[in-house]
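Retro notes, structure queue

What went well: the backlog is down to a handful. What didn't: a couple of records were mislabeled last round, so from now on we paste the full input next to the output in the thread. Example, using Rhodopsin domain-containing protein from Cercophora samala:
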Amino acid sequence: MAPPAEGSTSEPFEDYSPVLNFVIWVLTGYATIFISLRLWGKHHRGRRLWWDDYLLIASWVALFLGCIFQTVDTGLGFGRSQHSVPVENIEIARLLSTIAGFFLILAAAWSKTSFGLTLLRLTQTDGLLKKLVWFAIWTTNICITGSCIIQWAHCWPLDRVWRQEVPGGKCLPLDLMNGYNMFVAAYSGTIDVMLALLPCKIFWPLMMKRKEKIGITIAMGTGIFAGIASFMKILAIHNVNRPRAGPEHVVVLMALGTAEGAITIVAVCMPVLRTLLMQDSSHLLKSSLLNHIP
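Corresponding output:
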């Protein structure tokens, strides 16, 4: 993901890097708190980690690395007006933004996969719903893997991805890349919404208290916000590739990419944390009642 095209020195100076750093680290911090509580809750209850936990940890690592590369990139001029960036920093800034975007894509893919696996494990669902969740997991990973490949392989030789002045070589048509990335954003957002709504279908027929059904549906339904972030990326991808795109458009795209992975991580953690809180509350209530028995 390259910085905007060069402008003239008469352009006004714009610096959105502080905003980007604030947003991405708040989102990552939020995800860090929730995944830490999830892992602590598993340890507290003596539960072993499963594949969804390992994928969630990998997703958080990718998210964290993506934020680190973005922050380093802002120190080189990413998020500022092109004419204010030192010429010697432009190529390395493009490379770092590409690496950051790559890790954010991985964070989104792995967190969605973890969400699907958590849903399968919590519900023990069979039949059509189980096939639907597996379909969502596989197709999402296939589509996002395509984005990862395009991220690096859309130009040849490879270094032309970040060194646009390299003579010779070829790149995929920009319209083709943009079209595919918009499709992936739309499909990914659709899968987020579908996975967030599936608990309504799965839990409501079960013999559970009404408030428990509402609670777990809302907890897992937070994944809808990841879908919203993914849908917003469609417009952001369009804006960042316009001829006169500004630094604010690139910053918005990177922030939305960070938000998509971070929100999904939080959504995956919510059901486990809710179960832990309910068990602890029940234990405290029983202890309080026992203390008042003569």
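Agreed that this is the format going forward. Reviewer comment attached to the example: Confidence is low (pLDDT under 50) at residues 1-10, 280-294.
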